Amino acid sequence: MTSLGFIVLLILPAAAQDEAPLSQVPISMVAIQALNEGRAERYFDSRIRNVRRAIEGLDYDTFHLVRSEQRPIPFGEETRMTINDEYSLFVTPKERERDGRMVTEVRITIQRKGRDQRPMNVLDTTVRLAPGKPILLGGPPLGAGELIVVLSI
Amino acid sequence: MSACRYFKEVERWFDGEPADNEAVARHVADCPSCAAYLARLRLTRRAVASIAERVEISDAQFEAFLAPIREAVGAPRWRWRQSGRWAMASFVTAALIVAVAVFSFFTGGPTPVEANSEVLSCTTDVNGARADAIEQNGIPAVWVYLPDEDLW
Question: Which residues of chain B, if any, have pLDDT below 50?
Answer without folding.
Answer: 109-112
